[in-house]
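Blinded run. Sample ID left blank on purpose so nobody reads anything into the name before looking at the predicted structure. Input follows.
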Amino acid sequence: MDGVVGLEECSQGEGFEGWPFGCIGRVSGHVARQIPGLAQREAGRENLGMNQASNAGSCGTMLREYMTHLRVEKGLRPLSCEAYQHDLEIFAEYLEGGGGDGAGVKTFLTAQQADVSGFLQHLREHGVQSRSIARKLSCLRGLYRWLLMDKRIQRDPTVNIESPESWKVLPKSLPEDEVTEMLERSAAAARVGDGAGSGLGVALRDHAMLEVLYAGGLRVGEMVSLRQEDLHLDTASVQVRGKGDKERIVPIGRSAVEALEAYLQNGRPELLRARRGGGGRGDGLERTLFLSVRGRPLTTQAVWQMVRRADSHASPHKLRHSMATHMVEHGADLRTVQTLLGHADIATTQVYTHLAIDRLKTVHRMCHPRAQRRMVEA
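Blinded prediction complete.
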């Protein structure tokens, strides 16, 4: 599922909170607004027959087991699990209404290839973009691979169903001079601060976070989960836990190291003091690196808001793309960028190749023997 474009962005959004496990058999207003047509059977749902309620309960139990598999065995992050659960709930609702042929209530175990094809067609008819459809199909394939390995089904209904063609969306990045200007503004604010206390602590924290986001290309979820022991300032690097709880060492530059040192020395103690002044207890969260004004761990929403305040065109993920873009433009190879970003597949990183086409042409002219001959003849 890592190879589907857009899943990374989805896993970093904050749109899937509050989906309870086992809510199969009804579709929320949120899903109804996303997929028109799946909500039209909502009225009268209270009068479900015993057989239909039993099927819904079966799907709910199976979905809970699969979510446990993703979290425990696959090590997926909570937001990724919620995104997969959200997609499977929509499919379960479709099956509950009869699936592709409309003949009786179906479950995950009784779904056929026609039901999967019909579900994808239903999404297309209601204006769902091909990238979202591809992600949902990838999610279904993961579920049915698990069911097949667990010997709950004899045949995978997603086999031989082609993923819809989708345009590769080019990553949006900021110009290098705009990033430099943003970091210089935050550095000036950190030097001046807002008097003392939490104002100074927030300014130092924000500057350190911007420097680390751009220097290391961290995802927003990776940023908020950093702990003090993850920093290795002596070697100018941080230890990051990414998707699937995979760890990687990411180097950061001198500017980021200096910003972190200033935050650890003068900023973080002020923020932690604000929490203790409010009667907070030591609950194991003191090791969290970046704190809020109340001395609590930051949320992903707070990081997004902070970056947007620093630059109205920026976002945490756009800074990640900017880091990769600028490195490729300055001559970095894709394997290095892949390692820094924590991509499981080089295909995910190859989207940046278009950024270096001019440099590739220059290198080709300089290094290829046939190109050199043409240059001499000219």
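Unblinding after everyone has recorded impressions. DSSP finds 16 helices and three strands in the chain.
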